[in-house]
């Protein structure tokens, strides 16, 4: 039903029962999902994660859900619930979690495996946009995660893909992360990502990922465990890339000709990467 002047929608009634009227208080949201007013945080969190199709049964996702259910959130939005769930999953998956390569770091410590260098406000009641390394836009959507040199370990969880509609910046450089071929598919679901820095970790991949988002402008895979033959077709969709660094890997391949066809590419670094060939591909 329109207001008295025939303008903004003021009442939304369900077809099945006219008694179920929802009075709209603004012109931008006519749904009770805009804000959750529920004394049971556990029910609200579980409900909205399920509605969003988010799998919470993973090893670290279940820990994140348990934490989220225990939060005293009397009023929040589904977007905030999803963001807090994803960030909590990252925390549980990479804070003080051992893997094969991080054991070399552990040898210098006596008993307790080290946690992140900076955990400021993580898993606190404070808005997640205030947590260390988290960057948001003016609407509170997570647009960046900067964990460079923060001593994060374990494997980076694929739950980060649930930030695919907002995440633009991801810097995981200079850490001890260990992800292999099968644990990198989430990169392809970060549809808006423009900046990706995995420098100096233990990411392992045979060849070059052919599922990276076309939005990427900066890609730094240097000093990792990428190896083998590079199929040039992996670069055909990277039409916006401006900076590419694959130095310090262990390829056994020629520099693909397709790299020379990337019209936006301004910087290419491949020092000690195992790539062979000349610069004729530049054309």
Helices and strands in order, then pairings?
Layout: E1 11-14, E2 17-23, E3 36-37, H1 41-51, H2 59-69, E4 75-76, H3 78-94, H4 103-106, E5 134-136, E6 142-146, E7 169-171, E8 195-197, E9 204-206, E10 218-220, E11 225-228, E12 243-245, E13 250-251, E14 253-254, E15 267-269, E16 275-276
Parallel strand pairs: 6-7, 7-8, 8-10, 9-11, 10-12, 11-13, 12-15, 14-16
Antiparallel strand pairs: 1-2, 3-4, 5-6
Helix pairs in contact: 1-2, 2-3
In short:
This protein has 283 residues and is of the alpha/beta class. Helices cover 15% and strands 18% of the residues.
The level of helicity is 10-25%
Question: How large is the radius of gyration?
Answer: 23 Å
Strand segment tally: 16
Please state the overall shape, judged from the principal axes of the Cα atoms: elongated
Tell me the strand percentage band.
15-25%
Low-confidence stretches: 1-5, 8-39
Element order, helices and strands? EEEHHEHHEEEEEEEEEEEE
Can you walk through the features of this model?
The protein has 283 residues and is an alpha/beta fold. It has 4 helices and 16 strands. The strands form 5 sheets. A 7-stranded mixed sheet has the order 5-6-7-8-10-12-15, with no helix packed on it. The protein has a 3-stranded parallel sheet with strand order 9-11-13, with no helix packed on it. Strands 1-2 form a two-stranded antiparallel sheet. The radius of gyration is 23 Å and the shape is elongated. It starts with 10 loop residues before the first strand and ends in a 7-residue tail after the last strand.
């Amino acid at each position: 039903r329109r207001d008295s002047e025939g303008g903004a929608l003021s009442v939304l009634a369900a077809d099945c029962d006219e008694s179920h009227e929802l009075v709209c208080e603004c012109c931008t949201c006519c749904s009770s999902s805009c804000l959750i007013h529920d004394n049971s945080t556990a029910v609200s969190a579980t409900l909205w994660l399920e509605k969003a199709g988010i799998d919470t049964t993973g090893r670290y996702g279940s820990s994140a859900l348990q934490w989220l259910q225990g939060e005293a959130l009397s009023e929040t939005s589904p977007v905030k619930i999803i963001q807090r769930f994803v960030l909590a999953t990252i925390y549980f998956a990479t804070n003080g979690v051992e893997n094969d390569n991080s054991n070399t770091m552990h040898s210098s410590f006596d008993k307790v495996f080290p946690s992140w260098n900076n955990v400021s406000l993580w898993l606190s009641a404070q808005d997640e946009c205030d947590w260390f390394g988290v960057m948001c836009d003016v609407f509170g959507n997570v647009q960046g995660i900067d964990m460079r040199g923060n001593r994060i370990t374990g494997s980076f969880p694929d739950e980060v893909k649930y930030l695919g509609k907002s995440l633009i910046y991801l810097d995981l450089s200079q850490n001890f992360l260990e992800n292999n071929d099968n644990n990198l598919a989430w990169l392809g679901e970060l549809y808006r990502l423009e900046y990706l820095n995995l420098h100096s970790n233990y990411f392992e991949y045979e060849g070059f990922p052919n599922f990276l988002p076309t939005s990427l402008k900066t890609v730094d895979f240097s000093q990792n465990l990428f190896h083998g033959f590079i199929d040039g077709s992996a670069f055909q969709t990277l039409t916006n890339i401006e900076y590419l660094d694959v130095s310090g890997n262990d390829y056994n391949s020629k520099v693909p000709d397709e790299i020379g066809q990337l019209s936006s590419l301004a910087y290419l670094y491949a020092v000690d990467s195992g790539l062979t060939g000349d610069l004729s591909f530049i054309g």
